[in-house]
């Protein structure tokens, strides 16, 4: 159990319960998502779906979500409604409506949603990138699941046992909430063992009736946490910085291959990669792929310029404080410091590190991380 708190006097509060190691890589295929869906839509055993109507009437928002690593129950409410909001969340955790009829209904709804996702080419290309990079591991499967028909009600009940005391993180902003009532009802289940995956490289092409090619790419980026600030600068210059970044300049501005081209760091507890994407005309597909490879190769061999570093510093030092203004932003920042083992106050320290860093230090870092040349590609094309 861990508690994060941020004071705020705006009259509205947030309480989130994050259950570590309950995401899709810690469950049978699709079960983590299915469980979140039932908590989101099927209510309590006593009130069924009218449970949410009572929350809406008092402007209380309750949302359950899951990703590959953890699941989150998020509650937002006006301070004067805090007792009612907490009472309802405790009811949901104590007596969720895990019975056959709502289970069947959830299954139908998830299958329908999955069918709709097949029309989203960005989603398909992104999903397939993980399929090729993390082949034969639980990370290759999409969070929503691939074999939803195989999920049983018993699977849902079993996975819910891991919404437990030992792996919960309470994130509270605004009015201070007593967490004891939650600790009294959460089970004592021992958390599942943490997982970490090393990406492989390969290529996957999915043929569809499309007007343009969707190109997603990724590579391992084995960055230690004390190098995160260097990775932030390097990837900003390579492709995260929008106009002015290498990828945008070379792919869009100079050659007109794509409207946009991006690269970004994706550092999680279960994997560390750099990934990116672009869309281009069908006839430019191979040239665009070749160009991405060339840009990354040149980036490693030649590094960055003083001008690029100055520009990156100016943007990062100016924009980072703006990402820490709202209550939810402050809480997310504190959670990331805890969850990624960065230490309290890391993001403040990071700004000082960015300010002081030299072009030689960044280039030494880039040269050291030539693993980003081991690119995987996921392409949706005609």
Automatic annotation (TrEMBL):
Gene3D superfamilies: Metalloenzyme, LuxS/M16 peptidase-like. Residues 151-314 form the Peptidase M16 C-terminal domain. Transmembrane segments: none annotated. One of its GO terms (molecular function) is metal ion binding. Residues 21-145 form the Peptidase M16 N-terminal domain. It comes from the Bacteria. This is Peptidase M16-like protein.
């Amino acid at each position: 159990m861990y508690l994060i708190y941020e004071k705020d006097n705006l009259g509205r509060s947030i309480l989130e319960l994050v259950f570590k190691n309950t995401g899709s890589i810690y469950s049978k295929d699709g079960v983590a998502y299915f469980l979140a869906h039932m908590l989101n839509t099927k209510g309590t055993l006593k009130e069924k779906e009218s449970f949410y109507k009572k929350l809406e009437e008092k402007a209380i928002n309750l949302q359950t979500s899951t990703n590959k690593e953890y699941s989150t129950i998020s509650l937002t409410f006006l301070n004067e409604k805090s007792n009612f909001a907490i009472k309802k969340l405790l009811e949901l955790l104590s007596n969720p409506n895990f019975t056959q009829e709502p289970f069947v209904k959830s299954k139908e709804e998830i299958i329908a949603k999955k069918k709709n996702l097949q029309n989203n080419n960005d989603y398909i290309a992104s999903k397939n990138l993980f399929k090729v990079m993390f082949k034969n591991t639980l990370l290759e499967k999409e969070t929503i699941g691939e074999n939803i028909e195989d999920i049983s009600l018993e699977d849902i009940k079993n996975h819910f046992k891991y919404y437990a005391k030992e792996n919960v993180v309470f994130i509270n902003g605004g009015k201070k909430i007593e967490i004891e009532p939650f600790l009294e009802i959460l089970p004592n289940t021992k958390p599942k063992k943490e997982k970490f995956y090393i990406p492989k490289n390969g290529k996957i092409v999915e043929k569809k009736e499309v007007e343009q090619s969707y190109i997603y790419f990724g590579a391992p980026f084995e960055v230690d946490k004390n190098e995160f600030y260097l990775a932030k600068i390097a990837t900003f210059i390579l492709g995260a910085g929008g106009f002015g970044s290498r990828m945008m300049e070379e792919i869009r501005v100079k050659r007109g291959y794509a409207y946009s081209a991006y690269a970004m760091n994706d550092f999680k507890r279960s994997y560390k990669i750099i990934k990116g994407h672009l869309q281009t005309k069908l006839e430019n597909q191979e040239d665009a792929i070749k160009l991405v490879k060339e840009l990354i190769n040149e980036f490693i061999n030649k590094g960055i310029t003083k001008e690029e570093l100055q520009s990156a510093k100016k943007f990062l030092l100016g924009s980072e404080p703006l990402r820490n203004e709202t209550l939810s932003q402050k809480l997310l920042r504190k959670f990331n410091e805890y969850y990624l083992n960065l230490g309290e106050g890391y993001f403040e320290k990071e700004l000082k590190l960015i300010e002081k860093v030299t072009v030689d230090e960044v280039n030494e870092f880039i040269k050291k991380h030539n693993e980003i040349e081991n690119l995987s590609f996921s392409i949706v094309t005609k």
